[in-house]
Amino acid sequence: MLFLDEIGELGLDEQAMLPRAVEERRFLPVGSDAVIESRFQLIAGTNQDLGHAVAEGAFRDDLLARIDLWSFRLPSLAERREDIEPNLDWALDRWSEEHGQRVTFNREGREAYLAFAHEPSATWRRNFRDLNASIARLATLAPLNRIGPSEAAHECARLTRDWGATGARLARRDAACGGR
Length: 180
Fold this sequence. Notes:
With about 180 residues, the chain is mainly α.
């Protein structure tokens, strides 16, 4: 099993090496002069619209034709907000385990954070990366290992600023690139 994460981020030169490997199961390993064969199943992940990338010349059509046997779209965290609360608990448990100290929300802090997390303005632009980073910050800065409403409010304000700044950067990039 070979998993290529963020295949849409590969440059055209790297993409050129893949069609033969995918179709013929033959490739030239880095630093080798001999082609080898390998039986593998390929799973590729991306957050890009590869059809759009092909149309823009950023992704090879022949590679897409070889890898696009099955496609599954996973909804974003913003599209499945019911997953926020259980993943909040999981991320906090994981942080606590990794750092050897138990950190918890108090009731008011948890309610404030979850209320924010479920608002339409909470874009969760980076999906679980945003959620996990947010929980790590909260746990790291929690006074006496308790996350209260004040800590939740500060973190929610930070996320709002980050998402707004990211949105502004994307809008500037898109404008600079001809409004893509």
